TrEMBL record:
It comes from Xenorhabdus kozodoii. This is Uncharacterized protein. It comes from the Bacteria.
Length: 61
């Protein structure tokens, strides 16, 4: 179980960094197509973070 938590923590840290970068990018000047692609990536990232916390038995905020 300890190994699984360690792996999940590493993945969660990477996803949180990705989410921060995506939000920063979305604040810039993007075309409509770019914004759509970024919104999809952000949603996927959000769902992945939710899944990690679900597996850990905690609530994602």
């Amino acid at each position: 179980m300890e190994n699984k938590n360690l792996e999940l923590e590493e993945v969660q840290n990477l996803l949180e960094k990705l989410q921060s970068l995506l939000h920063l990018w979305m604040e810039g000047h993007l075309s409509g197509e770019d914004a759509y692609i970024l919104s999809i990536a952000t949603e996927i990232n959000h769902k992945a973070l939710q899944e990690i916390t679900r597996v850990r038995g905690i609530k994602y905020s």
